[in-house]
């Protein structure tokens, strides 16, 4: 499968386009990898209007000006290039043609086609954001025909504890109890501290008195959890829980201060948490992918991906994937899509990652730096084997 001369492959399936000359069989083997998407959200559970669809293919939360469309972007062009054929249309169709076809098929069939064509073999689904609008793990498993497990958001658990009511002095114990119960079958945890405060927080575990005082302030003021003392408490309780802990890093909607979401700000926490042996997973990381690579290189408890950045950089995603492979040990890099809503984003996350890996690794082989066998082994590690090890998914 991996021997023979260089081939130019037409890709009628998932990759669905011609690549550069790639050493014999490598691109085909990457196309056929059953990926583990270690951080995704559910696909849309309802049909989407044009306005709703366009709002979900941008990370901006602002109204879209009448004089523009998010289809005129890297991700928009990628949808029309790579998702259109999966729905039975020609590549590079118009947005109007694409959305009309999507509406005729209906959400269930669109999800089935795009999730199935992604070749993702296992989803880890984070359920803490607008979960009522998208499929949960069981719905994703049914739509895609593959296993799906849950990743639990720490802040969502804490906010439910507050909503249920408790004294400030009881918050720490109630949160711990709720987290253990909520994660009985979960594979991992996630924090959005980067959104709620920024990563420039004191890394030390807060004292019980600090937590009670901060909980009292939060209960009195109301609103979402954004107090850095409480966020630290959630993180350290998550580390005590022992499940792999994911951190949002870098690119996202305007709610995140990009300046304060650099993973280098987590260095103190990483070092304090190192003795616990809990995997800390840095999600997305764009434009800080090289910073994340350094942390994964330096610390045994750090792993990372470039998931969301791959989808939103579209035709430029090859460069992003190449940079992710620079400094980090290959056993520390994972694949994710971070898709939420349109199944197009799950599909593109996988397709663009496969294409980028084939091009980048193929160049290494062509230049004589790597063997084909080494390239295929690294693709398999990043595409799924690392996630199966980190999250205990088995083979």
Automatic annotation (TrEMBL):
Alphabetical list of Gene3D superfamilies matching this protein? Metal-dependent hydrolases
Alphabetized GO MF terms: hydrolase activity
Q: Which domain of life is it from?
A: Bacteria
Every Amidohydrolase-related domain range: 144-393
Q: Per its UniProt record, what InterPro entries does this chain match?
A: Amidohydro-rel, Metal_Hydrolase
**How is this protein named in the record?**
Amidohydrolase-related domain-containing protein
| Natural source organism | Nonomuraea polychroma
């Amino acid at each position: 499968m991996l021997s023979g001369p260089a081939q130019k492959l037409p890709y009628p399936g998932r990759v669905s386009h011609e690549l550069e000359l790639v050493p014999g069989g490598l691109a085909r083997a990457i196309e056929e990898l059953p990926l583990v998407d270690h951080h995704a959200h559910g696909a849309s559970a309802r049909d989407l209007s044009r306005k709703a669809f366009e709002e979900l293919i941008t990370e901006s939360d602002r109204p879209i000006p009448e004089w523009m469309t998010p289809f005129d972007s890297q991700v928009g062009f990628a949808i029309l290039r790579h998702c259109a054929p999966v729905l039975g249309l020609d590549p590079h169709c118009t947005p109007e043609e694409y959305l009309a076809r999507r509406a005729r098929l209906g959400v269930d069939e669109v999800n089935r086609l795009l999730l199935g064509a992604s070749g993702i073999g296992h989803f880890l689904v984070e359920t803490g954001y607008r979960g009522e609008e998208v499929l949960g793990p069981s719905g994703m498993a049914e739509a895609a025909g593959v296993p799906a497990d849950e990743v639990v958001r720490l802040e969502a658990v804490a906010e439910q504890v507050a909503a249920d009511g408790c004294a400030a002095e009881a918050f720490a114990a109630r949160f711990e109890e709720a987290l253990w119960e909520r994660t009985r079958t979960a594979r991992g945890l996630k924090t959005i501290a980067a959104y709620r405060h920024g990563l420039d927080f004191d890394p030390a575990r807060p004292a019980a008195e600090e937590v009670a005082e901060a909980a009292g302030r939060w209960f009195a003021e109301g609103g979402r959890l954004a107090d850095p003392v409480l966020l630290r408490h959630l993180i350290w309780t998550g580390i005590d829980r022992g499940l792999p802990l994911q951190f949002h890093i870098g690119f996202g909607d305007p709610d995140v201060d990009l300046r304060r979401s650099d993973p280098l700000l987590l260095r103190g926490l990483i070092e304090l948490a190192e003795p616990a042996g809990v995997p800390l997973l840095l999600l997305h990381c764009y434009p800080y992918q090289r910073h994340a690579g350094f942390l994964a290189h330096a610390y045994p408890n750090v792993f990372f991906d470039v998931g969301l950045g791959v989808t939103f950089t579209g035709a430029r995603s090859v460069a992003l994937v190449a940079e992710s492979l620079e400094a980090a040990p290959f056993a520390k890099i994972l694949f994710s899509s971070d898709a939420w809503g349109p199944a197009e984003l799950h599909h593109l996350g996988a397709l663009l990652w496969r294409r980028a890996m084939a091009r980048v690794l193929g160049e290494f082989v062509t230049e004589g730096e790597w063997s084909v066998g080494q390239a295929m082994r690294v693709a398999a590690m990043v595409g799924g084997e690392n996630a199966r090890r980190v999250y205990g998914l088995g083979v």
